Amino acid sequence: MVQINPDEIIYWSWGAFTLNETIVNTWIVMGLLIFLAWLSTRHLSIEPPLSHRQALMETIVSFMKSEIAEISRKAPERYIHFTGTIFLFISLSSLLAIIPGYRTPASSLSTTLALAICVFFAVPIYGIAEKGAADYFARYIQPSLIMLPFNFIGEISRTMALALRLFGNMMSQNLLVAVLLSIVPLFLPAVMDLFGLLIGQVQAYIFSVLATVYIISGSSTNDKPEDKLSPKGVRE
Predict the structure, then answer these.
(1) What is the DSSP string of the chain?
(2) Is residue 36 part of a domain?
(3) Which band of pLDDT confidence, cut at 50, 70 and 90, is reported for residue 236?
(4) By residue range, what is the domain housing residue 142?
(5) What is the pTM of this model?
(6) How many domains does the chain have?
(7) Share of the chain above pLDDT 70, in %
(8) Model confidence over 24-38: pLDDT tens digits?
């Protein structure tokens, strides 16, 4: 029987603590991100020629900044630390799927829910930082106080939808690959690996975009002149 959910693989258990494949693979992705960040930022230079590592890093960061600027119409530097990290985590965890026996932690509901909860708390944190606590929480009683429970339920529902969307897509990808490989294992492995990598990158992009949209929706619309951006992400 093919095990799709990495939560099902238990490496070690002691009392209430269980070390499963999801936790181990999450640690692996985190370790790789830290190592790659350290490796890419060694010997940085502002003068050409740039190293291949620095050029690749700057290309990735520039891409993320341009996408955030297109969505927010604000300076992307204030958002890239959070949404950029989420994108890199999901992206790298999906890319590692080319390694035999590896399953992305994003195919576990516990991981996707944890990511969605981070977004849930990031929305008020960014909103309060830009609008102030009073102005931010006032949005929950608009247009009247009776809307308070409904707006709060909406926030919870949005968080659950974000988690379930990523979990459903990543789980269905693993299931589809497992089923097809069990039918014709000699012809599809390479094709399905490429398919899985593509789906993983698309899901990383969509999750990060949705996180950015939710954060922007909770932030102030009264931007400072120096923070406004043109549609191409250039300060006016």
Answers:
(1) -----GGG-EEEEETTEEEEHHHHHHHHHHHHHHHHHHHHTTT--SSSSPPHHHHHHHHHHHHHHHHHHHHHSB-THHHIIIIIHHHHHHHHHHHGGGSTT---GGGSHHHHHHHHHHHHHHHHHHHHHHH-HHHHHHGGG-S-GGGHHHHHHHHHHHHHHHHHHHHHHHHHHHHHHHHHHHHSTTTSHHHHHHHHHHHHHHHHHHHHHHHHHHHHHTS-SS--GGGBB-TTS-B-
(2) yes
(3) very low
(4) 6-227
(5) 0.79
(6) 1
(7) 81
(8) 999 999 999 999 888
